[in-house]
Design a protein that fits this description.
alpha/beta; Metallo-beta-lactamase, Chain A; six-stranded mixed β-sheet; 7 helices; globular
Length: 211
């Protein structure tokens, strides 16, 4: 699998493009604003088709470019139902952000659930529900590549903010301890913002939630 890290949008939110060259298929994890302009040439060069878009959670900076991606590719969308309101009626986020964001709703094809497993790009993917930053935040764990895409639940040396509607530090702490820190220590964590880290590193040294 080839991995492209694509920071995009007004606050440089990480999108992750996973490509299986031998299958000529790709999956995009999260869709910040204008990410399609970055994804399109990579797909063209690899002669790949984007089959799915996985949304880690419904906050605007992770979904702003989603409608364009779906229109352009026909990709099927996966997300958690606890963020259904944010994904289907994203204009409500403008109220608590206090600015015009020009967001479009995204139609989700499959609502994922805790513990669900499915196949993509020839690999098994496990879904883990990690609320606290956002009610519907999930991580996508791929054991074959020792990677976990965690949205804004956990960062290198930090955690997701919990002061937005639906946020709770207690819930987030429980999610991190129960769903992220229980992954194998060498698992690489790919967060919604900033650089990658590992489960072991955060479990031992994260100042907000440690082992």
């Amino acid at each position: 699998m080839k991995l492209h890290v694509l920071p995009a949008g007004p606050i440089q939110t990480n999108a992750y493009l996973l490509i299986a060259p031998e299958r000529f298929e790709a999956v995009l994890i999260d869709a910040p604003g204008e990410v399609w302009s970055m994804v399109k040439p990579i797909l063209r060069e690899g002669k790949c088709r984007l089959t799915e878009l996985w949304i880690t959670h419904g906050h605007w900076d992770h979904t702003q470019g989603g409608a364009e991606v779906v229109r352009s590719t026909g990709a099927k969308v996966r997300a958690h139902a606890d963020d259904r309101v944010l994904i289907e009626t994203p204009e409500i986020m403008e109220k608590f952000m206090g600015e015009q964001l020009d967001l479009e709703p995204i139609q989700v094809d499959h609502w994922v659930a805790q513990g669900e497993r499915f196949n993509a790009l020839g690999m098994e993917v496990e879904v883990r529900h990690v609320p606290g930053h956002c009610a519907g935040n999930v991580l996508f764990y791929i054991a074959a590549t020792q990677s976990a895409f965690v949205g804004d639940a956990l960062f290198a040396g930090s955690v997701g903010r919990t002061d937005l509607p639906g946020g709770s530090f207690e819930t987030l702490e429980n999610s991190i301890r129960g769903q992220i820190y229980t992954l194998p220590g060498k698992t690489v964590i790919y967060p919604g913002h900033g650089s990658a880290t590992t489960v072991e590193r955060e479990r031992l040294a994260n100042p907000y939630v440690n082992g």
